[in-house]
Design brief:
heterodimer, A: about 425 residues, 2 domains, seven-stranded mixed β-sheet, two-stranded parallel sheet, 17 helices, B: about 425 residues, alpha/beta, Aspartate Aminotransferase, domain 1, Aspartate Aminotransferase, domain 2, two-stranded parallel ribbon, 16 helices, 13 strands, about 45% helix, globular, Aminotransferase_I/II_large (chain B), pyridoxal phosphate (chain B), pyridoxal phosphate binding (chain B), PyrdxlP-dep_Trfase (chain B), EC 2.6.1.1 (chain B)
Chain lengths: ~425, ~425
């Protein structure tokens, strides 16, 4: 593409017109190619454009209630009522809201974490999970310039974009086992063992996106042990704490295992799903360090990366989070509401599986209830997905990932029938 | 625990601008004065949330139908349209012809960064010329975006005004097609702006050399009090039919600092090109933060859209109220300039201080050197950046005498 741009430009320079006006000048961007649509967000665009009354959106991972409507949590509404009119909108520090970060670390590391007490965690507010991952990737590039990142197959598509734009070389490790629609544990362990010592590994803390397949507790212990042996750096993307099992402590189990085993980890946390704060872009990046001095140093360097990207993070969402988590009643309400969301999704998993089994599908659908979190990796092929969309106006990503949050008692029957129709002959 | 892989990480120096506030906060003196970071303060020295912003905020909170879904990658569509109109003018042919792509970004910083990354990927020239001096964060933003940074002469310490000849020479010798960063108005840190005639000369020179303008518009309405006057430089370039980039911030002119609201507009030759450019901007944004924050942009859209046709003396819409509040902030700052100038005159402080009233916008480049700045911090607990930049917005009628005393002392005792 660069050559095409240069060719276009040299034509312009040779054929220079008026010296003063710019009307004779061609566009600099003539040779800019239209970019491909984002595979995930493009699904919703297509859904919105569809006039069919039967249409179902099980594409993007945003929670819907049983009427298919987006939800603003009651604890969030109350927090916003308290905030409106009461706060100024001054710049946050580069590292974001101290209060929000403190509360967020407690969720990940534990209420009574010694690491928090000893001030060993370098942590900054980030632009949701994406921003936290990107900051870490940039930090990794700057301070471990020879390192590479191992990314599971499959993973959230944007992970590849993030580390690529940070110019960190990527490798993959085995994760999903298509035959069992579960974890390819043996191959995963082989990849961990075979990676050069001191590699960086991206781990989904819970509710793996897009497969919904998580290691068991025992498997996590083995992974942790092997990663320790190899001196790898574990980086956790935790986008669904509380949202997976309904219990934030339980969903942090993998992280706690690694902490017990003495790893120095990094974590990207997001409040997009578990507090329904999607569009507010609230998250946190933390890096566990050897001591307070190192944590101060690392935090200062993270800030140096944030400053030329956006200077300081947005205040509103952070205020909502710290208002809720800082108030015992609101926090308790939040925990209840998170459990309601998680339970509804678990209920829909059961319903979808039962419907498919009742229809007499020849395939096994037990993976629907074995997988966890917002997504179900159905095992459907891209062609089957296309058929679902064309014939049944059901929208999902072409990797066969179903967002269970988009499934309702109202559409689960229709969805099951459609899935059965496109898969029964396979 | 195993040795950390980040053992070797050293503590970064404090950000020179934001570090001033950190130092100020530590100071226990009752007379301390923060003239560091550029955030507006009232006469009482308090941060200000505009009344229209409060109204917009209330209406958002009280609307039960509002949800918190992800915005599209390029942000809130209505916000984008209104922002483009604000900077280009509502009747701009570029807008009517759909030649402008506008994407919501994280305030001015975010808009500059996204624009810089786009240029590094898709533009044939990888050098951006920035004025000497400029906002401290500019070189970092563009360097991390993948561009290399060069400087063009801008400020003349002798006159404390514009080094226009130097500017023309440096832009004149820049390679054809190079990117040039221009402060749309209220240059930061100097407060020195080209005149309209000088802007026209700059425009002609730049177009003749196919230099690509990248405007940083952080103070529209805040500098002169008039949104249209402060957008004139940008509109001149848009009106000649050429292409340019504009980074807009609502941090100061709507007081939305911490909400991080801004927009990047790229004015293209055709709407087809604008569409393709927009699609590529998405690829820059998605791996950075996926999509921009909702709250601040919603506030801005609420205010900007509420723009009726006004009858004389009857204009109660939010847009109009905003322009009134904006002018009041600009006027207070202009008043502080005059008060400080008079105070120095009264004290007979040596030197020509007329630049204080000639410069425009939030900042004054005092001309004080770093020893004098340090002296003022130590002896008078006055905080400013070491380049001698003071934020006029941090002054009040009550504190002007203290500052004048300090400047007087610094100039006569500490050189």
């Amino acid at each position: 593409m660069a050559a095409a741009v240069r060719a276009g430009v040299s034509g312009r320079i040779l054929g220079r017109g008026s010296a003063v006006g710019a009307r004779s000048m061609s566009s600099w961007w003539r040779s800019v190619e239209p970019a491909p649509k984002d595979p995930i967000l493009g699904v919703t665009e297509a859904f919105l454009a569809d006039p069919s009354p039967d249409k179902v959106n099980v594409g993007v991972g945003a929670y819907r209630d049983d009427n298919g409507k987006p939800v603003v949590l009651e604890c969030v509404r109350e927090a916003e009522r308290r905030i409106a009119g009461n706060q100024n909108m001054e710049y946050l520090p580069m590292g974001g809201s101290v209060k929000m970060v403190e509360e967020t670390l407690k969720l990940a590391y534990g209420e009574d974490s010694e690491f928090i007490k000893d001030k060993r965690i370098a942590a900054v507010q980030a632009l949701s999970g994406t921003g936290a991952c990107r900051l870490f990737a940039d930090f990794q590039k700057r301070f471990s310039p020879d390192s590479q990142i191992y990314i599971p197959v499959p993973t959230w598509a944007n992970h590849h974009n993030i580390w690529r734009d940070a110019h960190v070389p990527q490798r993959t490790y085995h994760y999903y086992h298509p035959e069992s629609k579960g974890l390819d544990f043996a191959a995963l362990m082989d990849d961990v063992k075979n990676a050069p010592n001191g590699s960086f590994f991206l781990l989904h803390a819970c509710a793996h996106n897009p497969t919904g397949v998580d290691p068991s507790e025992d498997q996590w212990r083995e992974i942790s042990y092997q990663i320790k042996v190899k001196g790898h750096f574990p980086f956790f993307d935790m986008a669904y704490q509380g949202f997976a099992s309904g219990d934030p402590e339980r969903d942090a189990k993998a992280i706690r295992i690694f902490l017990e085993d003495g790893h120095a980890i990094g974590i990207a946390q997001s409040y997009a799903k578990n507090m329904g704060l999607y569009g507010q872009r609230v998250g946190c990046l933390s890096v566990l360090c050897e001591d307070e001095k190192q944590a101060i140093a690392v935090k200062s360097q993270l800030q140096q990366l944030a400053r030329p990207m956006y200077s300081n993070p947005p205040v509103h969402g952070a205020l909502v989070v710290s208002t809720i988590l800082g108030d015992p009643e609101l926090k308790s309400l939040w925990l209840k509401e998170v459990k309601v969301m998680a339970d509804r999704i678990i209920g829909m998993r059961t319903a979808l599986r039962e419907n498919l089994e009742k229809l007499g599908s020849p395939l096994s659908w037990k993976h629907i209830t074995e997988q966890i979190g917002m997504f179900c990796y159905s095992g459907m092929t891209p062609e089957q997905v296309d058929q679902l969309t064309k014939e049944y106006h059901i929208y999902l990503t072409r990797n066969g990932r179903i967002s269970m949050a988009g499934v309702t008692t109202g559409n689960v029957g229709y969805l099951a029938n459609a899935i059965n129709e496109v898969t029964k002959s396979s | 625990m195993a040795d950390s892989v980040f053992n070797h990480v050293v503590r970064a120096p404090e950000d020179p601008i934001l570090g001033v506030t950190v130092a100020y906060n530590k100071d226990t003196s009752p007379n301390k004065l923060n003239l560091g970071v550029g955030a507006y303060r009232t006469e009482e020295g308090k941060p200000l949330v505009l009344s229209v912003v409060r109204q917009a905020e209330q209406s958002l909170v009280n609307d039960p139908s509002r949800v918190k879904e992800y915005l599209p990658i390029i942000g809130l569509a209505e916000f984008n349209k209104l922002s483009a109109k604000l900077i280009c003018g509502a009747d701009s042919p570029a807008i009517q012809e759909n030649r402008v792509t506008t994407v919501q970004c994280l305030s001015g910083t975010g808009s500059l960064r996204v624009g810089g990354e786009f240029l590094a990927r898709h533009y044939h020239e990888r050098t951006i010329y920035i004025p000497q001096p400029t906002w401290g964060n500019h070189p970092k933003v563009f360097t991390l975006a993948g561009l290399s940074v060069k400087y063009y002469r801008y400020y003349d310490p002798g006159t404390r005004g514009l080094d226009f000849q130097g500017l023309l020479e440096d832009l004149g010798s820049a390679p054809s097609g190079a990117v040039v960063l221009l402060h749309a108005c209220a240059h930061n840190p100097t407060g020195v702006d080209p005149t309209v005639e000088q802007w026209e000369q700059i425009r002609q020179l730049m177009r003749s050399k196919q230099l690509l303008p990248f405007f940083d518009s952080a103070y529209q309405g805040f500098a002169s009090g008039s949104l249209d006057a402060d957008a004139q430089s940008v509109r001149m370039f848009v009106a000649d039919g050429g292409e340019c980039l504009v980074a807009q911030s609502y941090a100061k002119n709507m007081g939305l600092y911490g909400e991080r609201v801004g927009a990047l507009s790229i004015v293209c030759k055709t709407s087809d090109v604008a569409g393709k450019v927009e699609s590529q901007l998405k690829l820059v944004i998605r791996p950075m933060y996926s999509n921009p924050p909702l709250h601040g942009a919603s506030i801005v859209a609420t205010i900007l859209r509420d723009n009726q046709i006004c009858l004389p003396h009857i204009c109660r819409d939010m847009y109009n109220e905003w322009t009134i509040e904006l002018k009041a902030m600009a006027d207070r700052i202009i008043s502080m300039r005059h008060q400080l100038f008079e105070a120095l005159k009264t004290r007979g402080t040596p030197g020509d201080w007329s630049h204080i009233i000639k410069q425009i916008g939030m900042f004054t480049f005092t001309g004080l050197n770093s020893e004098q700045v340090a002296f003022m911090r130590q002896e008078y607990h006055i905080y400013m950046t070491s380049d001698g930049r003071i934020s006029m917005a941090g002054l009040s009628s009550r504190t002007v005498p203290h500052l004048a005393d300090a400047i007087h002392a610094a100039v006569t005792r500490a050189s």
